[in-house]
Amino acid sequence: MWFFRLLGWLLLFACLAVLVGDGVTALQTGTLRFAAGGELWYRLDPGSLNLLQALVERYLSSWLWDKVFVPALLLPAFLLLLVPGLLLSFLARRRKRARFF
To answer: What angle do CA 85, 67, 39 make, to 5 degrees?
Structure first.
């Protein structure tokens, strides 16, 4: 469970970093615009994004890429990191042990 808790915290930290980056960009440009998840992924590693698209379209379905993956990648990046981070952190939290005396 410690691994999932750590992964959740890392995702939440990455979410915070993305929000800070979006805030700095907003201060520089004067307009608030959240970076899309696909845009951030493309900036970090464009080859892996292209590979994922090729694998999904070839071995699974082009419909799956168009109807599921593309809309998900168009969501703000901080949401794509925040939701799984919160879920992992909550589900893998330390629970109090019940004492029966």
So the answer is: 55
Residue boundaries of the structural domains of the chain: 1-35+78-92, 36-75
Contact 42, 4 (CB under 8 A): no
State the DSSP code for 19.
H
| 36 φ, ψ (degrees, to nearest 5) | -75, 155
Confidence (pTM): 0.81
Confirm if 81 and 15 have CB atoms less than 8 A apart: yes
In angstroms, the CA 16 to CA 36 distance is: 15
DSSP conformational letter for 53? H
| DSSP secondary structure code for residue 74 in this structure | T
pLDDT tens digits for range 29-67 = 999 999 999 999 999 999 999 999 999 999 999 999 999
